[in-house]
Amino acid sequence: MDVEGAAESPAPPVLATASPETLQEFCLEYISENYHYVCTERDLTDPSKGLQFCVPDTVLNMELSEILLRKLTEKKKITDRVLMLFSNPRTTMLKRAWLRGCDITIQGLAALANHKFSELDVSRLKNVTVQDLLWSFGAKGLEPVKSLNIGWLEVCQRVGKTANNEDSIVKQLSLWTKQLESLDISMAGVETLLYLHNFKKVPLKALTVFHTSVDFSDALLFKDIVKFNNLQHLDISMDSKTHVIIDYSRDTFCKFLELPPEPFLPQLTSLDISGNKPVKESSLKLFYDRRPQIKFLGLALTELCEAEFLTDEEHEDYRPHVKVTGHYTEEQILEGLRRYTNRPSYLHQLLSYLFDKTHFSEQAQLDVIKLVMSVMKNYPSSLGIQMAGSACLYNLTKYELSEGIHVSVLKKLIDIILDAMATFPERGQLQNNCMLVLRNERILYDVNFDYLRAAQLTMQCLTDYDDHSMCRTASIITSILVHKLTTEQKAVLGTTEVIEKLIDMIRDKVDEGTINTILKMTMKILWSLTDELPGICTVFINAGGYDLYLLILNTFYEEAVIQKRALGLFSNVAEVKALRPQLMTEDLMHHVRIAIEESGIEVAYFAGGILALLTSEDSQAWSLPTETKTQLLRALYDRVIEWGDYTGRLVAYRSFRPIIYLLTCQRNPGAQLWAAWTLWHTCAKKPERYCSMLQTEGGLEVLRELLHKPDLDGEVKRVTQNIITINEHHCHSKR
């Protein structure tokens, strides 16, 4: 038998306001996660030729192809072999490709060469250079590209690298991308000058030069960048967290901001100078006043975002249409999270600011939650991002806030939380953050996620950490999750090491004489793990569990919850025939007698179960005096009659087989009545679950045969008739 009432869930929540996933989203998510089920090798003798769809006639339109490619990229599943799925534009058409940070080579790039891309993101590729890009796509492949991100990319291989060689490669790229409107050369290093020099003739509308290691001297700013007369967006932001330290003078950027819009960058509507701390507010204000067409200012990681003319709606120069990134308002932070997806140090700090802003959220913010989830998913190995992100998710889902979020979103959220726990098992604060997210009734009872994985991770926290608050949280969550596991999953969770650690934890609490949540929940976990698992019951006995639980019964004899959980576990052990001799002791029978005669039904019930099981075999199996057995069974019989139609919940059953067996103990009316009352109680309380279980396991047939026994005890007969009536009524109501 499983733990008391654990099968029950709270009342159904109010329908969440967020919409569930569409069928298209669900299918693409499944394919991206399990692409090996729908793909096969092009050539079984040569895996290097890559994958193809199992169904030869598979055709994905451009929208589906691009979404699938992006999902595979986000899940870090893109390889040269996988990219072969997209090699034919007639079956998987692409106009946009995001390959940021993928583990591919020039062979993978070549697989996409036949597409006519308008947008191409190949940033942060470790095994690919700009030269490889030229060789793979050629002039024909690069000519239609309008947006190109080659940030963090080497121009060519370091072996044989020369200035002339690099210059010719960059020049070739500029000649083959005449339609280019947006160029990102972030972290380009000394090659920045080559790009700026060669791309002057390309009518760029957007240029990102994030954290270049070239000194932004007056010459570079005034003589090169300002000559891009078509520029509408310019990003010259910095990253103070990288290993490349650049110290610019205040005058450098102040002079740039003070340039008159004519003739310098006359069409500029968007400027990002985030991370550039040595900038005066007066210079920014002059820039702002002179350029009324400005729609965006990137001011993250600076104090400039706090300027009154940007934040105070009552300020005479405030413009509501100007978007700003920074830390001063939640809107600034969210704008930064949306824009700086390729800058982990920015994201970490912005998430930290968001945590402070979301302490007192009053309603569900689905867009914010999805934004945080996306950041955490893209940077699973960044401790800072996972730490700050998990803290934000707690603020955004705690208490009733989760009621406004659809379960499909919450499932993805929990998957990300579990990934973080698995990646950083030794980071206590992160583990605590993640468990605080998990400890939510809506999540634990309404969301279908990987319960076994979650239970393993929270169990690890419970057994490996000494922090009282963490262990308390872990014990509560694990006690709920364990009950959701199948018997097979419990066997996986309840390893010998885990059972022994749980017993040691309980022993420590008993030695301290402490009754707290950790003790109660740990006993509940152990009780649930022993349900229908003889192997775990054996480990419990061999690890000294019997003596420990007998000590618990002696020590905490006035604590009903403790008594119930100790006797409940013993009843699970009593279901294992080979272990029954271990329980046939005068000490345990003493506690069984007291529980049956003096305790409330919630304790007496489990004591009755132990006695019924231990006396269910022939008289030779009982090793204690026969008089003791007779007295105990008489006491049990009388007590069960007193219970009558008990209105509370006692226990959850996964199977009635041990109970049905007790019905056949014709010479043991005490055990027989206890079993019959159990079936009556459970079927009456939850007929939709237990009536079908009773019928499936052959219980109704046994009950009907029982009624034909001439020497059947009168009370047993009455309860048996009640059970049959309940089942007949339930079957009739379903028609």
Supply database-style keywords.
735 residues; mainly alpha; Leucine-rich Repeat Variant; nine-stranded parallel beta sheet; two-stranded antiparallel sheet; 35 helices; 11 strands
Tell me what you see in this structure:
This protein is mostly helical and 735 residues long. The chain is built from 35 helices and 11 strands. Among the domains are: 516-623, Leucine-rich Repeat Variant; 628-735. Strand 7, helix 8 and strand 8 form a beta-alpha-beta unit. It is elongated. The protein starts with 22 loop residues before the first helix and ends with a helix.
SSE blueprint and pairings:
Elements: H1 23-33, E1 39-41, E2 51-53, H2 62-74, H3 80-83, E3 96-98, H4 106-110, E4 119-121, H5 130-142, E5 147-149, H6 163-176, E6 182-184, H7 192-198, E7 206-208, H8 218-223, E8 233-235, H9 250-257, E9 270-272, H10 281-290, E10 296-298, H11 308-311, E11 323-325, H12 330-339, H13 344-357, H14 366-378, H15 383-397, H16 407-423, H17 428-438, H18 441-446, H19 451-464, H20 468-484, H21 487-493, H22 496-512, H23 517-529, H24 534-542, H25 545-555, H26 560-574, H27 580-583, H28 586-598, H29 601-614, H30 626-643, H31 657-663, H32 669-685, H33 687-696, H34 699-707, H35 714-734
